[in-house]
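User: Okay, second chain of the day. Same drill as before: sequence in, structure tokens out.
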Amino acid sequence: IFFFFFKQKTAYEILSGLVGSEMCIRDRYQRRVHGIDLISLMEKDTGKEPNFLEQFQLYFDEAAKLTKTNPDILQIIKNCRAVISFQIPLKRDDGKIEVITAYRAHHSYHLSPCKGGIRYASNVDMQEVQALASLMTFKMAALDVPFGGAKGGVCIDPKKYSEAELERITKRYTVELVKKGFIGPSIDVPAPDIGTNSKTMGWLMNAYKSMSGDVDINQNAICTGKPLPLGGIDGRTEATGLGVYYGIVEILKNEQFCAKYKLTPGFKGKSVIIQGLGNVGYWAAKFCEEGGAKIIGLVEYNLSLIHI
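Assistant: Same drill. Structure tokens below.
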């Protein structure tokens, strides 16, 4: 797979550096590439922890040193090609007017369309969607999926809005993206993410079809993660959680990994704590339990439970 002049081999080299020889996880965990804690080094230099985009760029630069790609090309690959921010006026159910900030980022156009989720979260911002869009490109390149990376966000806490309000937000978000040429089956295909689901994608699809359905024969391909009656795929809802389960099963087959962390190889009998019982966490917990693990803890935004 190629994006820009980016060979799949280089994608693997960059991705292995981004992930690190030891697991590289966002937020509250140390990240190391070749034994170096890059985040702590940058924090020491600047006096503050780098944000998500800065972390991505930090690891990109370190991993890029392992490739033979032209440095000028690497700079093109590193940055998002287009980022948009706009305001959505919302009339609340009680008649009050609220202005909401929304974002969408496109990382790579070399392979089209762009692909990435839309999250509804109160802390989402411009740098976060750029970082996530960038990571989407590398994930798909490593898996030989021929799309560019994208990501979107709406700065709200969806728990504080009614279903009717969320529908209005989603449709207005879609309309603004269409007006700006930032969405379409051959341009950018969104999907659910944090705070969104198949119903959200159904609203998005409805809004897109109301604007472009008469001229776009591929209108149903405007998003993935749609409800089944609208052309969604059976199994999509649990797919991410199932992927988490398969990932754990495979890494616990690695004797070197298990020896390093003093674990016995194999999945059965392992104790598991689930952080977040949303769509991903619920299905991951379900498949882990069915696979022989014991769920001993749960962490949610408003509580923590543990049973040993």
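The two ends are 47 Å apart (CA to CA).

User: Thanks, on to the next one.
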